[in-house]
Amino acid sequence: MLEKIDLNKSIDHKEYTDKLETLSKQLSVLQRECLSRQIPIMVVFEGWGASGKGDLINNLIHSLDPRGFKVFSIDIETEEDKKRPYLCRFWNKIPAKGQIAIFDRSWYRRILSDRMDGISDKKKVQNAYDEILNFEDMLIKDGMLIIKFFLHISKHEQKKRLHKLEEHKETAWRVTKADWKHNKNYEEYLAINNEMLEKTDMAEAPWSIVEATDLQYAEIKVLSTVVERMETELTKDVVASRKVDNYHRKLGWIPSEELFHNSTLDSVDLSLSIEKEEYRNKLEVLQEKIAILQNKVYLLQIPIVIVFEGWDAAGKGGTIKRLTECLDPRGYEVIPIAAPNDIEKEHHYMWRFYNKLPKASQIAIYDRSWYGRVLVERVEELIRDEEWKRAYSEINQLEKQLTNAGTIVMKFWLHIDKEEQGKRFKERQENPEKQWKITEEDWRNRAKWDEYEKAVDEMLIRTSTTYAPWTIVEANSKNYARIKLLETVMNVIEKYIENLKK
């Protein structure tokens, strides 16, 4: 791809001046229109060292209202960054609706660096590309405009610029050993850049290769491309349904609609229970074992995600309490998930969860989670159908990223029947100490039991994967549910640690 680019392209000064004035005015107007239409934009600059990324970003923002954009210069990962899935630090930087985020290097940095240093095997490289494509696809389907530039210069031009930078102490610091290494092995790195461009060139987020020998020509091309992409985006119907990605189709398996006619939950034996004495004895033993396992998790730097979902009054709070009673509070966090606030609503719905993922050695316990997208938001019709249908794939991708990064993911559905829920609701209403637990919303949800059951069934089928399976917990007996859940937590962690030794 890059070998075919004519790097001799240039522009005369008068044409440059005339076009710059016109494009600057257009860009200023388009920024306001995108803000009005609540279109978020990400502009990515990748390319060779000394290819002019800083200059071109600076020229781009001259035409923008500074209140509407942020520039992020992406450096190598910090030790803190390395303790979480790689894309977390970029999720933290995605712009709110109507805002623009400009990246001087981006999520492509690590894969390029790793490939150039020869430290990534083929499987890791492909996983990284898959995660990047899923990341961009997820944002695009939610309305993000992604504009990607690769700044291309020749080996000779790069060498000339690096020497010029080194001649002055004010700029010499910008030249690194890696820059010279890349120049020396230019042809090898050219192939790596070609691979990256070919594997990540998407119809909705294509790469624009910028001939950057003449920086004035490059500036006009960048501004023209941004203007063109913004104009095209503004012509789209903002409420148009975007294509729903089918995660299972990618895997070669499509759940039969017949699966959703027969409830997965119908086969759950809710008569299961445990005697009080046996419960007390098992609880004590399990809590002691889990406390020991937490120390091993810390030493091995294993992050853990534990998701609690279930019917209202299914016993999530009590079960979480029994789990955390044995844990060192410095090593875990319980994260209750409520309806998104105004700031969270301005971003992709996954944004608020990527900000809450645990770092290595930590345990994150979610009292409700990202599954609200395919449960309450679906049933209560808070979002369009295509949004919750798309969420299954997005959730699977999140959990795949977690497990790829070495995170243990456990998901529990606490299941009770409608009769048991009614009994517990009544007990809460009649007990002054527990009345705070019952709300009008609980009663409204109960009235839609059948709709919620259908949503739960589909959620369990579409998001129970080999790397992040669901565990259905029979919870009509609270004590039985607590023991089953703690046993599952213990067994999963023990098995994971045992596999690390192999």
From TrEMBL:
Could you give a GO molecular-function term held by this entry? polyphosphate:AMP phosphotransferase activity
Domain Polyphosphate kinase-2-related, which positions? 11-235, 274-495
Task: Name the InterPro entries for this protein.
Answer: P-loop_NTPase (IPR027417), PolyP_AMP_Tfrase (IPR022489), PPK2-related (IPR022488)
* Coiled coil spans: none
Does the keyword Transferase belong to this entry? yes
Keywords from the named record: Transferase
GO BP terms: namely:
polyphosphate metabolic process
Is Lyase among this UniProt entry's keywords? no
Instruction: Show the PANTHER family listed in the entry.
Output: POLYPHOSPHATE:AMP PHOSPHOTRANSFERASE (PTHR34383:SF3), POLYPHOSPHATE:AMP PHOSPHOTRANSFERASE-RELATED (PTHR34383)
Protein name (Swiss-Prot/TrEMBL): Polyphosphate:AMP phosphotransferase
**What organism is listed for this UniProt entry?**
Anaeromicropila herbilytica
